[in-house]
Amino acid sequence: MNTKHSIISIDLAKNIFQVCALNAHNKVVINKKVSRKKLLATLSQFEPTEVVMEACYSAHHWGRAIAVLGHTVKLIPPYQVKPFVVGNKNDHNDAIAIAEAAHRPKASFVPVKTLEQQDIQSLQRIRERLIRQRSATSNQLRGLLAEYGIILPTGLYRLRKGLPDILEDAQQPLTPVARKFIQMLYQELLAYDKRIQETENETIALLQTDEDYQRLQTIPGVGPIIAANMLAAVGDAKYFKNGRQMAAWIGLTPKQHASGEISRLSGISKRGNSHLRRLLIHGACTVLNWSGAKTDKLSLWLQALSARAHPCKVIVALANKLARIIWAVLAHKQNYQAT
């Protein structure tokens, strides 16, 4: 099977994969099912060529493994493949659609993550889950306390601070049973705090010698969490042509609807990594809160923009600018300069 093919597309699954190979004339010459155990052995029989897969479950693992065989691996977002599925939705047609989508002039690809990036991203996803569970526990605590007529101020800090006093106060209208489950939920809340902190410490330990990680934290509004998520999601910034392209990839550019002479811009597209976009919005809020008393170039731009635009628009515009600054810092390997 040592023949030259223009492209090989793989429809990934858990145990059975669909491998499709196209010749130089973009005609399908092979489209067969291959088991998990035989996938690498099958691909090793092909001459080094371009291998395309959807950027989905286990794609980065297979991308690293296939690249070792000498192939050029590309991962394409699933939403770009869907329009090219012809006929019924099955593995045979999906594999052909992946190959066809990869040939489009405007096709964009996701870089294969390294093992280090995979470690960082895994830790960040664990942290996200723990935060969601902590929020659910704190909300349940507040709701249960409200049923007994006890209302605490908003915020995790005030909740942690107020609960011990409530549990020790014999005058509070809590039954022995209520005190028991409130104490249990309080201990659960503290356990989540500990596990979140351990996850953050592990992430910092992995990145403490990374120069890009240090450079990113010189940017206003970018702290350890945003820097870690950015490195895990982006990796090599030169994969993007410029900062605007990276901001669009994150989903921080306006949606456009144009027809003839009419062109309308609306809210941000919200494409790409929603977690990364949310973190940049939070970072922008922090910068905006402290910009009024500063005289650097970024703060002066924010002050001028705030005078004529709604705060929400200012925050999104700043998040977009932060994404562009992050690209420049990563692409040029230089610390952020306020001037």
What would you note in describing this structure?
This protein folds into three domains: 7-102, Nucleotidyltransferase, domain 5, CATH 3.30.420.40; 115-208; 212-332, no CATH class. It has 339 residues and is of the alpha/beta class. It has helices at residues 39-43, 59-67, 78-81, 91-102, 115-146, 156-168, 176-207, 211-216, 224-233, 243-250, 274-290, 297-306, 311-332, and strands at 7-11, 16-22, 28-35, 50-54, 72-76, 254-259, 262-268. Helix 5 crosses helix 9 and helix 10 crosses helix 13 (311-332). The relative contact order is 0.07. The mean pLDDT is 92. It is globular, with a radius of gyration of 25 Å. The strands form two sheets. The protein has a five-stranded mixed beta sheet, with helices on both faces. Strands 6-7 form a two-stranded antiparallel sheet. It starts with 6 loop residues before the first strand and ends in a 7-residue tail after the last helix.
